[in-house]
């Protein structure tokens, strides 16, 4: 199985996810999420394939999210506006995002990874 992981090398959660995937015998293609955030269309596909709400893709604990006051703004934004915002700044995306082209996981919870990638 071929998987891609959108990650940030300084993020301990991303490092844990990579370590877990490699321990399972997977050799993920790594995409540096800060330098190469997914495009609007890529995010749209990731959201659709994940089965999650778009808001689950926001890094709500991140500095940029707080600086922009998004907690109070997200609810009034259109889906297209939210997608454009996510694609504009890799720091706004919850990470890691792992996909094989059909399945998607966001964040790292070992139980979720076992179910999806184990």
TrEMBL record:
InterPro entries in the record: Arsenate_reductase-like, Thioredoxin-like_sf, Tscrpt_reg_Spx/MgsR
Signal peptide: none
Annotated SUPFAM superfamilies: Thioredoxin-like (SSF52833)
Matches recorded under Pfam families: ArsC (PF03960)
Alphabetical list of Gene3D superfamilies matching this protein: Glutaredoxin
Entries under CDD domains matching the protein: ArsC_like (cd03036)
Domain of life the protein comes from: Bacteria
Annotated family: Belongs to the ArsC family.
NCBIfam families: arsC_related
Protein name per the record: Arsenate reductase family protein
